[in-house]
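Need tokens for this chain, all 471 residues.
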Amino acid sequence: MTGIESALGGEAQALAALQAVGTAYERKIDALLPQSARLMPAAFTGEGMQSGVVGLGLAGFTGLMTGSVVASSVSSMSDQQLAELVQQGPMRFGGKSGNAELQIGEDGSLDQELAFDVDESGLSGKVKLKLHVDACPDVQGKVGVSMDVDSSMHVSAKPGTGGSVHTRFKLDRWLDDDARLIDSADGMATEMQMEIGGVDDGSDRRMARTVRLERGGAASSAMDDWSGFNIFTDTPAVEMANALIEQSHLMLVLIAEMQLRGMGKGPAWESGRCVELKVTSDPSRRKGVRPNTAFELEAIPRAKADGAPTGGSVVATLEGGESLQPASGKVRADARYQYAGPAKKDESAKISFEARSRRGVGRAVLEFDTKQGRSYRITGLGTCNTSHTVCDVDQPFSFPVCGGTMQHAPTSDRGGTHSFEHSGATGSGSYTLTGPEAEMTATYQNVTCAGKRCFKTPNGRAVWTKIDSCE
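Here are the structure tokens for all 471 residues:
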């Protein structure tokens, strides 16, 4: 069809040349890997860089490197690390005959462009690829992969002999309410537009075909162009081209499915980056509580993309004492629980929550304990001379002072930083504790700001008196 076989001296020589081109593409891909590890921003962990790469030969026409290596690393990043990576902008690396550009979205989505040129065993080849992979499902639970591939190949000694392929491909997949891909016909839709062209001794043949698979399983195919073919004498060539298109469609479906499912670290929507799971307790204080304290808990999953309720369900798992109701199984979101805290002093417990829906997966943890903290009564602070009980001064705490609010952030058992708001003014500084543990004196150093002016104010003092319990 393309004249390559006859130009190279027969089928065996043509197959050997095609294999050499495929090997050369693979070398190009392998050569980019050390550069990707070296040039990616510091936010990358580097985990799985070598094992996460997928190289694909598309029926002898093209070579693809997927973004699995990047997706694998991104899935294990914290939100802060991902934000740093996104801020760096596109990552570019490559050489004279091959280059790549990767762009990571705020939700972990991937856009990738690759280009390779190869001249091997009498054949010259060129491949360009654009790839987009969704990370988070939309409100219907849909995620997708799109590819745009251009490839060409010709005999080096005969520039007018060879072939080209242009392919546009889209895969849409849907999740169920358990954040898992639907495996039935209702869970997939695809569309591929492929244009194949070839020149053999001046004879130009072209075929364009669109293949669709609708959600629900209905399949269709349309021949858009078949110029240069004779339906009476070129039947084998037509059948070969159609078979190649069908095989290419199947291969692209498999590649896209691999991209969505993730390579080694699971799909992106299970990373917790698509869903924010807010968990609350009433009472809100969970550390240093009385034994058998009763709590009302609520788990509220929301899609990060639009803040909408995700639906689906929540599963809560208790580690430690005492009792959680419902104790197991799925609870419809937004989920409510009753929890009786640890039954004895100096005990701790943890409840892990996981929300699953067609919007993805969200996770959160609440921790409880009945441990005795460093409890103090603080008096004499400010001109109001108020008194405040703090259950654990080793943890950040706040209380009202003279109509405002004062916050403490301990940095050691003898001091920390503080900030306050009062009557339109704000301030901050440090505090230092002196004296015996039973009764310490706190000295506050302050910088107060009002309007656009900031100035040091006299040191403040307060008395911290140790108490046995804050119950």
